[in-house]
Amino acid sequence: MTEKLASLTFSDGTPKADFPVMSGTMGADVVDIRPLYGKTGKFTYDPGFISTASCLSKITYIDGDAGILMYRGYPIEELAEHCDFLEVAYLILNGELPNKKQKHEFDNLVAHHTMVHEQLARFYSGFRRDAHPMAVLCGVIGALSAFYHDALDINDPRHRDISAFRLIAKVPTITAMSYKYNVGQPFIYPRNDLSYAANFLNMMFAVPCEKYEPNPVLVRALDRILILHADHEQNASTSTVRLAGSSGANPFACMAAGVASLWGPAHGGANEAVLKMLAEIGDVSNIGKYIARVKDRQDHSMLYGFGHRVYKNYDPRAKLIQRTCHEVLEEVGLKDDKLFKLALALEKIALEDDYFIKRKLYPNVDFYSGIVYKALGIPVSLFTAIFAVARTVGWIAQWNEMISDPDQKIGRPRQLYVGPGKRAFVPMDERK
Ligand code: SDX
Questions:
Q1: pLDDT band at residue 1, thresholds of 50, 70 and 90?
Q2: Residue 58 Cα to ligand 1 middle (Å)
Q3: Residue with the nearest Cα to atom 57 of ligand 1?
Q4: Nearest C-alpha to atom 34 of ligand 1 is from which residue?
Q5: Residue 380 predicted with pLDDT over 90
Q6: What is the Cα–Cα distance from 75 to 195, expressed in whole angstroms?
Q7: Which alpha helices (DSSP H) does 366-414 contain, by range?
Q8: Angle ∠(388,390,394) on CA atoms, nearest 5
Q9: What is the DSSP letter of 428?
Q10: Closest Cα to residue 261, out of 391, 171, 144?
Q11: Distance, CA 52 to ligand 1 centroid (Å)?
Q12: What is the CA radius of gyration of the chain?
C-alpha cells in the first residue's frame, strides 16, 4: 500500500514538508506532525485540542456525526441492554467480554476489595460536614497512594492490574462514605453478596437499625447509567489522567487529577448544573425567558446538559438515559414528575430553536441523568461523584493503555509566546 502523505507549504520561504497520514480502524485519518518542529522549526496551535489526536487508543470509538459510541467495538446500546457494569468494566479493561468463569472471578475480585483501610475513614472527620463530595473524592482517592506501597510500580503490569481493581472496588465505597458523612449517619460497610450497583445503593441508604432491600428496577437503572458513563475516549478528565500519568505519577494520584477535571460544569459537573438550572427555571412557562438569557452573550447563562465537542447529531447516551428515566419515574410513582416534564419541554423547545440548530447543540449524557439520580434519592451534590464512580473504569483503562504504549512520552505541549520581548532589568529604587 502506498503511504499517504500530507504536504505543508509556507508563504515565508520555509521549504515544503511532507508528513505521513495515519489511518485507524474507523474514523478520521490523522496527520502525524511529530517531525514538524524538526523539519520546519514551527509548532502547531490548537488550544482545546479541536483538531488534535493525543494518542492511539483501542478502547472507545465515537462517530459524533452519526451519534455512534462503541466500547472495544461493541455498540453502547447493546452493552447497556445485555451487560451489567462489571462485565463492561472487564471489557474496557481487558479488550474482550468475559466468559462465565472470567466474569465470576472478576466480580469476586472486585467484591473482595470494596472495603477501605479503617485509617482512611479518619480522613473524613477532617472535612466539614457540608464538604462537597467531589472535594472529598479528590482528597481521599489521592490519599489511597499512601496505603498501597505494595503495588505502586507502574512498570509492572501486575501492579497496574491490582491498582485497577482496587480503584474500581473502592471508589463507590469512598463516594457513599462522603454522603454518609454529609448527613451524619454511620458509614455502611460494603456487602459482597450484592451486585456492584446494589452494593452502592446499600452503602448509601442502609442504616444499622433497619433492613434495606435495594429495589431491582432502581439497581438496574443505576447499573445502566454506570455503563453509559464508563468511558468516552479522550474527554477532559481522561486526558487529564493521561497527562498526569505521563510523568510516571502513581495511578491513585492520577485518578484524583481526573476527579478534579470532571468536577467542572462544562464536563461532569453539568449533571448537577442541570438540576440547579431546572430548579431555577421552575416552570414550563419560564422556558422562553431562560432561553433568551442563554442567547444573550452578556448574561453568561448556559443550557447545561446541551452541546458536545464530538456529538453534532445526538449523544446516544442521552437517548438511553431518557428511556431509563421513564422506567425509574414509573417505578417510584413519579410518572408526572414536574422536573422531568420541564426537562422534556426544555429539550423540545431548544431543539426547535434556530440558535441551537445552527450550533448543532443536542442533549448530552448529563441532561437526563440527574433526574434519574434524584428519583433514586441521591442528593444533587453527589451526582458528579457518581459519574466519577463509573468513569474510574475508563480512567484506569486509559492510564494503563498509555503506560503500556512503547511510544509513550511525558505530555509536554509547547506555546506561542506573546509576552514582552527581552528588556533591561530595572533596580527596585528606579521603578515607578
Ligand atoms: C461531558 O468530551 C466528552 O466526551 C465529555 C463527556 C464524557 O462522557 O466524558 O461526554 C461528558 O462533559 C458532557 C458535556 C457536559 N457539559 C455541559 O452540558 C455544559 C454545557 N455545554 C457546553 O459547555 C459545551 O457544549 C461543551 C463544553 C460540552 C462543548 O464545548 P465546545 O465543543 O468547546 O463548544 P463551544 O463551547 O465552542 O460551543 C460552540 C458554540 C458557542 O457559540 P458561538 O461562540 O459559536 O456563537 O455553541 C455555544 C457556544 O457558546 N454553546 C452553547 C452551549 N454549548 C455550546 N450555548 C448555550 N448552551 C450550551 N450548552
A1: low
A2: 25
A3: 302
A4: 309
A5: yes
A6: 23
A7: 366-375, 383-404
A8: 95
A9: G
A10: 391
A11: 17
A12: 24
Residues with Cβ within 8 Å of 281's Cβ and at least 6 positions away in sequence, in order, are: 287, 290, 342, 346
The 74-75 sheet, strands edge to edge = 60-63, 68-71, 74-75
Task: Report which residue type is found at 346.
Answer: L
Ligand 1 atom nearest to CA at 315: 10
Q: Provide the β-strand partners of residue 60.
A: 71
Q: Model's pTM, two decimal places?
A: 0.96
Q: What is the pLDDT at residue 96?
A: 98
- The residues, ordered by sequence, that sit 6+ positions from 329 with a Cβ below 8 Å of its Cβ are 335, 337, 340, 371, 375
Active site residues: 308, 366
Judge whether 238 and 398 are in contact, CB under 8 Å. yes
CA 310 / ligand 1 centre spacing (Å): 9
Would you state the cell numbers that stand for residue 47, as one nine-digit string? 488550544
Atom of ligand 1 nearest to the CA of 267: 12
Query: Cβ(76) to ligand 1 under 6 A?
Result: no
Query: Ligand 1 centre from 309 Cα, in Å?
Result: 6
Largest CA distance in the chain: 79
- How much is the mean pLDDT over the chain? 96
